[in-house]
Amino acid sequence: MKYRALTQGLAAILSAQLLVVTPALSQPMGIPSMGPASGAELSPNLERTLGDAIMEQGRRDPQYVTEPIINQYLTELGQKLAKHSSVPLHYEVQVFGMRDRTINAFALPGGYIGINTGLMVAAESEAELASVVAHEIAHVAQRHVARGMTQSSESSHIMLASLVGALLAGLAGSADLAMGVATFGQAAAVDRQLGFSRQAEQEADRIGYHMLQGAGFDPNGMAQMFKRLMHSSRLNESPNAYATTHPLSAQRLADVENRIMSTPAQTYTQSTDFWFVQAAAAVLQAQGGSALLSVQQRLQEAVSSQSGASKAAAYYGLAYAAKQRNDKAAAQQYLQQARQVGVESAALDSLQIDVYWAQGQTEKAWQLAKQAWAKWPNNQAIALDYVEALQKQGLLEQAIPFLEQRIQQWPQAPRFHQLLAQALDKRQQPVEAREAMAQYYILVGALSSAVDQLQQARSLSTDFYQQSKLDVQIRDLRERLERDRLLLERFKG
């Protein structure tokens, strides 16, 4: 499954470079050689360095999904599946969303997996979505992406060298927003050229199937997703990059169906979160105009035809769309209708808090934020809502320890480090604020910016021991930057 979500502007930026690209390349049977940076030498460490550098730029892309309800769901879905991989993973899988209506998913070096909103919306069950994520994790575990990027093709070498040149600029802190977007799109274009052999695809299906089953998802979801994508591709019902760049053969479908027949029958459950994530993805994908009106129409139809969690999620989607249009009254009405369905969801509480703030109902927003955090202590969106409520209530002294606790709870979630930095700065703790901001930049891969923050902290500190600690951190980061630079330089030529 290859990412095709290049905006018109990005496509123009890349068009000159894409002219040298040949049609989709096949996955070689062995590990090809390309001199000093051959696939045989593409260690997991180097692959992760490539992935981190690409994602540092990718997070600047306007199409990168920042909605916490979607982010946490995709992250936890990927982690749940990866635990059941029969092939050891060299690094933690990280799944993120891209705002693009194309039915697609893609893998980048280092365990990063992107899921288009179009795929989230097209899936008719959580198991269908999970089957695609599991398949991509299988490609990551088998290191197909890493090997494909270093195959002995002149065109792939040219594109990879060009990509690395942009990544090196980003590593040095000299990349601007336009370069960041172009770099991420260029990395996606490299990924799009990788074609895996029939054997590699069937092996990814097999490993993905066992992940799906082991994680408690209905393996029928994989067969249903195959059938749906094959059907939509034949009828051209929707842009379907998966079926065009990643052909679905009858043999692959037959293999999955045979595995299902030999699997003992059992009861599977489905998270209600899936329906709310799907509704949010549909609204985010539309952005506005006639596309948003079309989404609202589909959600209205779902309200009439669905029941339970899917019906409540449809109301939630309508409320989310109304909030996007700044129609606070309509958003409130749809939220009330969602509540009447009788399905509880952190997504509903989070959106209701936002609507209360927008309506100026400060006390209601504050009370619901407290209640929601007590009810949903493992939900990042609610945690962020509670932090906002504490700040708006002027309770900075409570917000700081709360953020520190959330960082311990979710150490890899950058947003909490950023909010802690802002809170510490407001409390006149400039050194600690810059240390927290440095951690934020480290987590998003902007190491040069992290060094800048630590240097500022060093210049502001008057404590010898604190200065010594900062000196060690600065030295370690500079050494890491130099190692990453040297690793990337291997691909520049």
Automatic annotation (TrEMBL):
<dbReference type="Pfam" id="PF01435">
    <property type="entry name" value="Peptidase_M48"/>
</dbReference>
<dbReference type="InterPro" id="IPR011990">
    <property type="entry name" value="TPR-like_helical_dom_sf"/>
</dbReference>
<dbReference type="InterPro" id="IPR051156">
    <property type="entry name" value="Mito/Outer_Membr_Metalloprot"/>
</dbReference>
<keyword id="KW-0645">Protease</keyword>
<feature type="domain" description="Peptidase M48">
    <location>
        <begin position="71"/>
        <end position="259"/>
    </location>
</feature>
<keyword id="KW-0862">Zinc</keyword>
<dbReference type="InterPro" id="IPR001915">
    <property type="entry name" value="Peptidase_M48"/>
</dbReference>
<dbReference type="Pfam" id="PF14559">
    <property type="entry name" value="TPR_19"/>
</dbReference>
<keyword id="KW-0482">Metalloprotease</keyword>
<dbReference type="GO" id="GO:0008237">
    <property type="term" value="F:metallopeptidase activity"/>
</dbReference>
<protein>
    <submittedName>
        <fullName>M48 family metalloprotease</fullName>
    </submittedName>
</protein>
<keyword id="KW-0479">Metal-binding</keyword>
<keyword id="KW-0378">Hydrolase</keyword>
